[in-house]
């Protein structure tokens, strides 16, 4: 009888130990399963949150606009030319040429200068103004300098060159000498009258001067 009781006690003890061990193992598995489900749930929630969150717009780089400031040019003043009696492109003289035409013709013929050339020179030099004064000391109708007039035989004062007859006499004499030195060629004559009897090379000023003369006499 005692043996049977001892056997039952041992069997009960073994069965209880097995159940305890099995319960411990099952508890561990349950905890692991719970953790796994928790992680899956968190990942699912993050994924949903990411889908519902609107995507951030890409940053747009600000570009600075550089505007060039262009300074407006000042309008140039223009002076209208008076109507000419011919298509030479030059204004009518302020004083009528006929007022001095007789004197011009007189000295042009005396010194063998073509009348048309003489008229053109007077018009370009002073526009028939006997009181014209140049920046370099030129005087009168033909803009002759006192030193040049004296070279031509004039012995009076500088003021005397404002007289039309006196001015045309010595100015025409100087033009005649320029014509001789220039070989009778119009532009060479103008070069030596404008730049001096010793001038040999055409310069821009004398070239433009000759162009005006040719436009008048042709």
CATH architecture of the largest domain: Orthogonal Bundle
Largest sheet: none
Low-confidence stretches: 7-11, 13-27, 66-72, 75-96
Structural class of the secondary structure composition?
A: mainly alpha
N to C succession of SSEs: HHHHHHH
Could you tell me how far the N terminus lies from the C terminus, measured between alpha carbons in angstroms? 168 Å
The CATH class name of the largest domain reads Mainly Alpha
- Principal-axis shape equals rod-shaped
Instruction: Tell me the fraction of residues in β-strands, as a range.
Output: under 5%
| Rg result | 59 Å
**Total strand segments:** 0
Q: What share of residues is helical?
A: 55-70%
CATH fold-level assignment of the largest domain: Lysozyme
Mean pLDDT: 74
Total domains: 2
Number of helices: 7
Question: How would you portray this structure in words?
Answer:
The chain has 218 residues and is mostly helical. The chain folds into two domains: 1-36; 98-217, Lysozyme (Orthogonal Bundle). Helix content is 57%, strand content 0%. The chain has helices at residues 2-52, 98-110, 115-126, 146-151, 164-181, 186-195, 204-217. The protein is rod-shaped and about 135 Å long. The model is unreliable at 7-11, 13-27, 66-72 and 75-96 (pLDDT under 50).
């Amino acid at each position: 009888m005692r043996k049977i009781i001892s056997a039952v006690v041992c069997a009960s003890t073994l069965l209880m130990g097995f159940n305890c061990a099995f319960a411990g193992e099952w508890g561990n598995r349950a905890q692991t399963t719970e953790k796994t489900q928790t992680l899956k749930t968190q990942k699912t929630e993050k994924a949903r949150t990411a889908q519902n969150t609107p995507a951030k717009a890409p940053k747009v780089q600000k570009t600075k606009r550089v505007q060039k400031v262009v300074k407006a040019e000042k309008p140039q003043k223009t002076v209208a030319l008076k109507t000419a009696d011919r298509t030479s492109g030059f204004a009518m003289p302020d004083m009528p040429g006929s007022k001095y035409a007789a004197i011009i013709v007189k000295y042009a013929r005396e010194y063998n200068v073509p009348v048309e050339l003489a008229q053109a020179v007077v018009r370009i030099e002073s526009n028939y103004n006997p009181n014209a004064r140049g920046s370099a000391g030129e005087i009168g109708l033909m803009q002759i300098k006192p030193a040049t007039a004296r070279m031509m035989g004039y012995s009076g004062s500088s003021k005397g060159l404002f007289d039309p007859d006196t001015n045309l006499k010595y100015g025409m004499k100087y033009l005649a000498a320029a014509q001789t030195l220039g070989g009778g060629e119009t532009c060479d004559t103008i070069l030596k009258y404008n730049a001096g009897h010793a001038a040999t090379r055409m310069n821009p000023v004398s070239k433009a001067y000759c162009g005006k003369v040719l436009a008048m006499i042709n």
